Amino acid sequence: MTTSRRDLLKFGAFGGAAFFAGLPATTVSAQGSELTIAYNVNLPSWDPTVGPSAVNPTIQAIYQSVFDMYIAQNPDLSFAPGLVTKWGWNDDKTQIMMEVRDGVTWHDGSPFTADDVAWSLERAGKPETGNPIQFVWSKIGNFKVDGNKITADVKEFEPVLFKWMSFLTGYVLPKAYYEKVGAEGFEKAPIGTGPYMMEKFERNAFVRLKANPNYWGGKPKFDTVIIKFVPDASSRVAEIESGSSQVTLEIPYDEFDRLKAKDGLAGITTPISDIGMIFLNDVDVMLDKNVRLAAHHAIDKKLIIDRLLNGYGIPIDTLETPQYAAYDASIKVGFDPEKAKQLLAASGFSPDKPVKFKIQTTKGFKPKDYEMIQAIVGMWRKVGIEAEIEIYEIAKHYELRAADTLAPAAFYNWGNAIGDPTTSTGFAMFGPSPHSVWDSKDLIDKIIPLWGEKDETKRIEGWKAVDKYIAEEGYVIPLLQYVQPIVHVKTVKVTPHVSGALLPALMSPA
Amino acid sequence: MGRNLLIRLGSTVVTLFGVALIVFILVRVVPGNPIAMMLPPGASDADIALLTAHYGLDKPIMTQFWIWLGRALQGDFGTSISLRQDVMGLIFGRLPATLELATLALVIAVALGGSLAVIAARYRGTAAETGIDLFNGASLAMPDFLWGLTLILLLGVAFPVFAISGRVSPTLDLNFVSGFYLIESILRLRFDIFLDLMRHMLMPALALALPLAAVIAQLLKTSLKEAMQQDYVMLARTKGFSETRVLLSEALRNAVIPTLTLAGVQFTFLIGGTVIVERLFSYEGLGNMAIDAVINRDLPLIQGIVLVFAALFVIINLLVDLSYALLNPRLRHG
Contact, A325 vs A421, CB < 8 A? Predict the structure, then answer.
């Protein structure tokens, strides 16, 4: 019997169809044991205390799944006992005291002790370690361990020291294990005391986490969590819509509204500790207070949020959001285009004779960043401000900001997961800081005493006064507090965190 | 031929040196300072200076280049600023994934383009040829990333047949020794893994392959049509061979040579095209890593990746030239 070419082609077509039909379905089901999250960024490095990754707010959720912070933070940003259960200063604030939790083990089964905490803090304070927040950790030293108690001397008073223990690089690492395997070994096989253990990691692809059955906070609800790194927003939408993932975040608000209305899916939004703002640089026309205040009064923030962000956002008039310690609801810079015109007129400007300057912005770095600036420029034009938009990459923004050569106005966001005014108003508006571009002496003089203020009430009131002064002088234009969109399947319950961290340990089967 | 080969190898070295120099200078003059991106909030001028010196960025650019070149010639391409690991280790850890994806795309492109060309040539002047021309036009008009998005929508969401992201299911533990998962899965007879890999790789490979398939189809079709007018083809017809046999046995053999060389050259563009496609499909290849390196201004990693891409392009072009001489006897003594 001979086989004809036609028969071969038919067989090949049938075989091909059978091949594809036999491919397993893509749906991964979270049936109480496994959860898949489509995450928006890649994880570059596993050491949460050194290098650029350590100060990247967007990957802290992954770190917090594997490692514990010294002091824990609740979803509403309040602080809670973590690995350190008690903490405080002595009366004259020359020493700190900490008590560490009993009965905690590292992922390899070895016991967690106070020595780990002391070692982690000491290591963080050494310049050669490469901890980006070394300037905070180095303010304490001479650690003494006695059982589960630690004392240390205060070299320089830092009022937010304990808050930093819930913030960037505030993680406890295993002393014995790290010294045994070294930095490279730790990178390949990191261990912590966190709710999940790192089981498998493929760079730029995924991390597979396994529940820590001995976690001091209780075993997490999902046995396995797969965090897929899907930087492209369209792909994240496809992941959740196809059922390949059960949770995702940071998708366009239009897609969020569409997806949450679909069968089987739900959406939650949370105002987070991240704000959008326009930096003002004390150069050229921005030296004119009337111009600065006019620029602020001319912006209808609510309209921008409603039209461009589908209503997802909260207008703010200072760099503090309602969840922050120094938030003062009485500080208002309202939308008042008539007042803006009057201010400009006082300086000789009008819609027919506008003041001109450049505004820089990213495009696509934050939701509708460029579109917001376009809208603002349109609002400005109506009152007598002619702004030229320059688009740049975020990398250039950092470079220009560090060199204090930003344009008179520049859009940026500012995250502040501990909600303390030093880490928002302080770093953003203190002239000598590489992150600030406003350098006027009056503001520097007002801020300097607050860095080392030992009276907490006085310190917070001091920052509120600084924020009020900044608003009155128009030194910055806060725009909005961002709202984080999270889409998830209805079979998974998600508890959002105001810091913006999407934590698997806060998820459970619905 | 040996002399020509030596000359080509010499020019390869010069080319790579030029690429290294240009990239080295370019990444340092374009906006975006990696030091500025990693500055802690309380950094003083002294801290900035220390960090700049730590990464060797305080020296003049040419001094930095000679230091880098000296180390590179000893196999040390530096440490990634963002990933804190050896650059070459990172690159060669990811390169097999990209090579497999590009190779799969090439195979699909050649198979699909070749098939379409043969059908169009066989049924020239009919609706089949018109349909194929339309398909080729559409494929050429759409860039690969747009094909990627379309495929995700169709075969990832609407009819979820394939996986949208990644190279392999996160639930599988491979324990493979090489990074060439496709090849190793076949060699180890792990067809479950092979199928899983294909389920992840087919969409990105198709996205890369479709535009190239159109190019191959057009070129081969034209070559076939020309070949079909040759005397030896007429002779074959007079001998009573069927039109299909004449096409496949006589015309294709000669018509395919320029197409194969084109495919070889286009392979380099396929590798370049993996950058966007890998990002779209979150495929853990070199292209995806390159995008992160650029975003983070990770200078050592950017340099390493570009140099490896350049080396690949040069080597592939050299192999294509050599294979052309092998395929076409008339060129062997040229």
Answer: yes
pLDDT at A327: 96
Give the residue with greater pLDDT, A309 vs B41: A309
The structure's pTM equals 0.88
Q: Is B49 touching A (CB cutoff 8 A)?
A: no
The pLDDT value recorded for residue B223 is 84
- Residue B55's SS3 state is coil
Q: Between chains, do B167 and A202 touch, taking CB under 8 Å as contact?
A: yes
User: Tens of pLDDT along A177-206?
Assistant: 999 999 989 999 999 999 999 999 998 899
With H, G, I as helix, E, B as strand and everything else as coil, classify residue A304. helix
A-chain residues within 8 Å CB-CB of B196? 24
| Pick from B154, B215, B160, B204: nearest CA to B182 | B204
Q: Are the beta carbons of B194 and B93 closer than 8 angstroms? A: no
* Close Cβ partners of A319 (under 8 Å, ≥ 6 residues apart): A275, A277, A414, A424, A425, A428, A429, A467, A470, A476, A478
Chain B residues touching A23 at Cβ < 8 A: 161-162, 195, 198-199
Q: How far is CA A192 from the centre of its chain?
A: 21
Rounded to a whole number of angstroms, the distance from the CA of B14 to the nearest CA of chain A is 32
pLDDT tens track for A81-103:
999 999 999 999 999 999 999 99
Nearest C-alpha of chain B: how many angstroms from A205? 5
Chain B residues with CB-CB distance to A55 below 8 A:
38, 40
